[in-house]
Amino acid sequence: MFFSNGKNQRKSWIINIELGTYIMGDIADIAAGRLSADELSKNFDDMYPPLDSRQAHIEASRCYFCYDAPCMEACPTGIDIPNFIRKIQTQNYRGSAIDILAENVMGGSCSRVCPTEILCEEACVRTAQEDKPVTIGKLQRFATDWLMNTKEQPFERAELTGQTVAVIGAGPAGLSAAHRLSLLGYDVEIFEARAKAGGLNEYGIAAYKVPRNFAQEEVDFIVSLGGITIHYDQVLGRNISLADLNVKFDAVFFGGGLGAVRSLGLDGEELDGMFNAVDYIANLRQSEDKTDIEVGRKVVVIGGGNTAIDAAVQAKRLGAEDVTLAYRRGADAMSATHHEQEYAQINGVKIKHFAKPASIQSKDGKVTGIELETTEIDTDGRLNGTGEKFTIEANMIFKAIGQVFVTDTVSENALSLEIQDGRIVVDDEKATSIPGIYAGGDCILGGEDLTVTAVQDGKLAAHAIDEYLANLQG
Amino acid sequence: MADISYNFAGIKTPNPFWLASAPPTDKEYNVVRAFEAGWGGVVWKTLGEDPPVVNVSSRYGAINYNGQRMVGFNNIELITDRPLDINLEEITRVKKDWPDRAIIVSLMVPCEEDPWKRILDRVSETGADGIELNFGCPHGMSERGMGAAVGQVPEYVQMVTEWCKQHSDFPVIVKLTPNITDIRQSARAAVQGGADAVSLINTINSIVNIDLDVMAPMPTVDGKGAHGGYCGPAVKPIALNMTAEIARDPECQKIPMSGIGGISDWRDAAEFMALGCGTVQVCTAAMHHGFKIVDDMKTGLSNWMDSKGYETIDDFRGMASPNVTDWNKLNINFDTKALIDQDKCIQCGLCHVACEDTSHQAVIASRPNGERHYEVLDEECVGCNLCALVCPVDDCISMEPVDNGKPYMNWNQDPRNPYGSAAE
């Protein structure tokens, strides 16, 4: 899959999705620059401003320093949260940041993108006490930002083993694995399909969640440990193959993420004005000031996950007049958290529950609207259409009904990993069916579509690889 | 509605809340603002002989705790640095303009009879309601043989008190320094000298913090620091204890007391009164929040008195004093156990870790069905209160007295005491 870098294409941009190539500038009622550069820059800046030191101290002082802290257990990477917060209280910021980064080297991006409201902050005892958790995410950002601003790399590599591990994909899983492997004394070569590292942090998450090139700063921080080389534009199945890497390297970690988006299964998905949200967001993320990003006057987003929310809110923030998000089930079934849904609503996105796409409406090859059918859940819990239909006008329709893993690259003739339900099967230590090949992140069976679990997968895999290679030698 | 006016050793005050002798009472401008805000009285910042003292720049330091500013406070300021004439003129005018308020003048001159007689004559002309002898200032003045240097020697306390009674008609309040080992010695000396009242405590010798960059105490004056006088909420427990010591000392003859030390709100004031104080003096809380805090003090005290059915301050004043006793009079058969209200528990585990790490291993942590559960093991619980103190949820852990059927028995009566009466 090709992604434009957005830098040389100010007036119009080209995206290549699985269904074809479109030049957006041609589409009526779709335009870039609906808002001034100033407004756009404001709209795509930090969604939540960072805490200053005074605010951080007040917030940190709310932490009870719990024993057997529930927040810690709720963190997929197991950060010692009470300990890092206490260190903010005492202005031991370096110690605080190291506590975080030692368990989660992408603690900076996780502090920005984690759905803390269903993880650490939901578990915070102050949620039980007064429905107002310690804002753990914001405190984590405070500490990690402090350290990253010093440009120090606080970790030191162990004695070198002389062995090299290949990592496929420079997303959160791959970067986490690479950092931990390097710490353990391995050299690491990362093969990344795109022009930049960072994965979804760079290409897939709403711009206002990780603004100002943070994703690249974090990559630089990780790589500054040493021993990590990133090879860009290396597409598995095209420039490289899993079988070759398996031969050339002492071990392989696969963190390739998900490659394709689901289609609606309706006629007209090739029409002008139909987009998949993943590619649209990737392109938007690569635009420096967003003045070149085109958006429809009326936009409909189909889906109920974080990508759907991110597409809808960003469309609104680009200046779309009407943005409706349609989801076939109710609010509780959406994979976007309640907090994300509320955020969309305060940004003026209308959320239509219990409505599924019935047909795409068009005129002269261009999208004009979408017909939706209302749904209901029967007594057996099945979702059925009611037969009642309605139409929403749209110049742009985003598909955001989930991504799928393209299994071809890991199940070629020369070498084939065990696949189940379209994902790679791994054991508790993230080992695949082939000895020496490990996998983590969204592409594995049970993957949770969260940055923080991808980081944990990479970390666990690195330790498993270390043990595997030590045993081979032993 | 409760009557919160008071007659303190002959000084009438519309309410028991006075500003202590300190920066807030240094001049007419401040005092008038205080009276406008509703304070019942002021103890004018200590007057001395001319020429006035000179103060340094950089004067206050503070302890902040967990985001809360000024939990403890200290200063290296001296007595008033304004000419005596100006102070006396202002005192005279303010008393004339605010006749219903109490104005007490704090004094400190060298420990000789003449200077005391001279200044008493001058203050007598102002119409002030009383004088307070500053025997407490722990810094600067004590190096010159005044302040705490007098207060630490009971004979001097008695002698100066006698001079003041002899050379003026004022009610004399002796302000006591806490920088001694037994506050009763100086309080008894004041009583012997004929004092009408005592006020306590003055500030405590302190270094509030060390600036780790400058490597010097704070406040730092050109790279150096000196010990100062500590006050604020952190000193209240010390002040309460000293107040209780005097209240229950027969030789102190129930001398009227004006409570000082970390009083920030009506509840603090009521506690000092429960130990026998008729008025209280406030400084740090006013320096932190301004004079408006007196509004809460007055209405809070009045509302609380109404809720308890106390019509005047004397209705409850001193009620807690008889319950202050010596350790060897405590009932050794009394037994209390912690009880955790599971419906209120938020699973923070602080009760467990505090007891497990530092006390009696009496709060058991378990995970039935994965849920955190904390339970008191009665056999191990000694009733120390620690779990209830660390618990962040109000009324979640209560200390429940156990009816063990045993009669009162103190340590002296306890057969386990090798030196007790039962052993004889």
How does this structure look, described?
The complex is a heterodimer of chains A (474) and B (424). Chain A has 474 residues and is an alpha/beta fold. Chain A has 3 domains: 23-46 and 261-403, FAD/NAD(P)-binding domain (3-Layer(bba) Sandwich); 61-150, Alpha-helical ferredoxin (Fumarate Reductase Iron-sulfur Protein, Chain B, domain 2, Orthogonal Bundle); 164-259 and 405-473, FAD/NAD(P)-binding domain, CATH 3.50.50. Chain A is 34% helix and 20% strand. Chain A has 17 helices and 21 strands. In chain A, the strands form 7 sheets. Chain A has a 5-stranded parallel beta sheet with strand order 6-5-4-7-21, sandwiched between helices. Chain A has a 5-stranded parallel beta sheet with strand order 9-17-11-12-13. In chain A, a hairpin with a 5-residue loop joins strand 15 and strand 16. The radius of gyration of chain A is 23 Å and the shape is globular. The two termini of chain A are 42 Å apart. The relative contact order of chain A is 0.15. Residues 1-28 of chain A have low confidence and may be disordered. Chain B is of the alpha/beta class. Chain B has 2 domains: 6-323, TIM Barrel, CATH 3.20.20; 327-423, Alpha-Beta Plaits, CATH 3.30.70. Chain B has helices at 28-37, 84-97, 113-124, 148-151, 154-167, 183-192, 236-247, 266-274, 284-289, 294-308, 350-358, 386-390, and strands at residues 6-8, 11-13, 17-19, 41-47, 60-65, 68-75, 102-107, 130-134, 172-175, 197-200, 204-206, 209-211, 216-218, 228-231, 257-260, 277-282, 336-340, 363-366, 373-376, 397-401. In chain B, the strands form 6 sheets. In chain B, strands 3-4-7-8-9-10-15-16 form an 8-stranded parallel barrel, surrounded by 7 helices. In chain B, strands 5-6-14-11 form a 4-stranded antiparallel beta sheet, with no helix packed on it. A two-stranded antiparallel sheet of chain B has the order 1-2. Chain B is globular and about 75 Å long. Chains A and B meet through helix 2 and helix 8 of A and helix 11 of B.
